[in-house]
Amino acid sequence: MKEIRTRIAPSPTGMMHLGTARTAIYCWAVARHFGGKFLLRIEDTDQVRSTKEAVQVILDGMKWLNLDYDEGPIYQMDRLERYKEVVDQMLADGRAYYCYATPEELDAMREDQKARGLKPRYDGRWRPENCVGKPIPEGVQPVIRFRNPDEGAVTWNDAVYGPITVANSELDDLIIMRNGIPTYNFAVVVDDWDMKVSHVIRGADHINNTPRQINIYNALGAEVPVFAHLPLICGQDGQKLSKRHGTVSVLEYERQGYLPEAIFNYLARLGWGHGNMEKFSRDELAQVFELADCSRAAARIDWKKLEWLNQQYMKEADDARLAELAAPRIEARGGKVEGGPCLKAVCGLLKSRSATLEKLADAALFFYVEPKVDPETAQAALENGGREALKLFGEKLEALADMTPENVYHCIQAVMEEQGISMKVLATPLRVVVCAADRTPQIDVTLCLIGKENVLNRIKAALA
């Protein structure tokens, strides 16, 4: 069986979009499913828009999603000699030719075609048979065009959409090289041919490029890979995902406090399904993934579902890992983690009720800042028996030799029984004057994390 080889080939011209990330996940899954190879190629021939910063964004995004690639990154700009070699052979064989038409001339050609009700397309005016005896204009830098077949049609069996046919009469002679730089449709064919890519998996917006590329494959005598085109990702309104829908960059989700395994899981499920599987690991995806299970309909982002899924991963996450991820977020909010309660323990207490790392940091912050108790709120909390309950609790806590959640709970129970009060009468002032919060996690565990000395000092300050 031929080795399965897939690739993700983003252009470093901006952020790493969710669509690119999902495509990378599917390419990775196909390669891992068949025990093949997954490649990363950087298509950096757009020298105007490509930047080193954007390349780093791609590398960072791949690393964050744990998309391990077997080969790469491979840069197109390092392969210019190879493209020239192929183009020179095509020129020699008559499969490509120089075109000296100026941009102004081509604009005029298209306007004329539109005026006559024709589809704007290159008319082949510099094909060798059409310019016999025609002088080469001075000062014009020619481009090189691929000689597309005039007759017949291109048909391929798309792994997602099924059979697709496009007549060659619908295609014109596309430019394959300009000023020594290959164009997308040409470079991608040479790259995939040289790198023995067996499956080209990409967005459905590339379907129009596929017949052109297949014709180039055929002209080169190269084996045509399997093509699979993925429907685009839409916002909840059904429109193509864009900045107006919110986050479209995969690394922005890291900043928003999502775990990479949740984003990986969510994007994989966005347009693909396997039975009732909603939550799955990377290895589970690799085991069951099939391109045939991809939907032909556009997938819609559901932010609430993503948050729910992330919360499931938060609950299962290692406490030490969450502490490492939450610490800089707490510090950014003005908290001082060093010298405060064990952050690992705090994360273990809070993670089940925190949908994201950002919300975890918000919930944990009061452990790491000096409480700013509102005097009016504190006064209200101490009324109706609150002052007496808090005073008695402080006395019992001070008498404890060992401050554990169980012992603190017994103190609370003892105060309630001795004063005949409800839990709320004591819990409210504890939350307000000790934690400066109207809600906290389990109060006995929370007080233990804050520490006996801090709790007693805050109680004494409130009762003074």
TrEMBL record:
* Classification of source organism: Bacteria, Pseudomonadati, Pseudomonadota, Betaproteobacteria, Burkholderiales
Q: What processes does the entry annotate via GO biological process terms?
A: glutamyl-tRNA aminoacylation
Keywords of the record:
Aminoacyl-tRNA synthetase, ATP-binding, Cytoplasm, Ligase, Nucleotide-binding, Protein biosynthesis
Q: Which residues form the Aminoacyl-tRNA synthetase class I anticodon-binding domain?
A: 321-463
One GO CC annotation, please? cytosol
Q: Which PROSITE patterns match?
A: AA_TRNA_LIGASE_I
Instruction: Give the catalytic activity.
Output: tRNA(Glu) + L-glutamate + ATP = L-glutamyl-tRNA(Glu) + AMP + diphosphate
Q: What's this chain's function? A: Catalyzes the attachment of glutamate to tRNA(Glu) in a two-step reaction: glutamate is first activated by ATP to form Glu-AMP and then transferred to the acceptor end of tRNA(Glu).
Q: Where does ATP bind?
A: 243
- What name does the UniProt record give this protein? Glutamate--tRNA ligase
The UniProt gene name for this protein comes to gltX
The Glutamyl/glutaminyl-tRNA synthetase class Ib catalytic domain sits at 3-308
Q: Which family does it belong to?
A: Belongs to the class-I aminoacyl-tRNA synthetase family. Glutamate--tRNA ligase type 1 subfamily.
Q: What is its EC number?
A: 6.1.1.17
Q: Motif 'KMSKS' region: residue span?
A: 240-244
Subunit structure, interactors included = Monomer.
Q: Which InterPro entries match?
A: aa-tRNA-synth_I_cd-bd, aa-tRNA-synth_I_codon-bd_sub2, aa-tRNA-synth_I_CS, aa_tRNA-synth_I_cd-bd_sf, Glu-tRNA-ligase_bac/mito, Glu/Gln-tRNA-synth, Glu/Gln-tRNA-synth_Ib_cat-dom, GluQ/Sye
Please name the GO terms that the record assigns under molecular function: ATP binding; glutamate-tRNA ligase activity; tRNA binding; zinc ion binding
As annotated in the record, motif 'HIGH' region runs over 10-20
Task: Spell out the subcellular localization from the entry.
Answer: Cytoplasm
Q: Which PANTHER family match?
A: GLUTAMATE--TRNA LIGASE (PTHR43311), GLUTAMATE--TRNA LIGASE, MITOCHONDRIAL-RELATED (PTHR43311:SF2)
Q: Whose protein is this, by species?
A: Sutterella megalosphaeroides
Q: What class of enzyme is it?
A: ligase
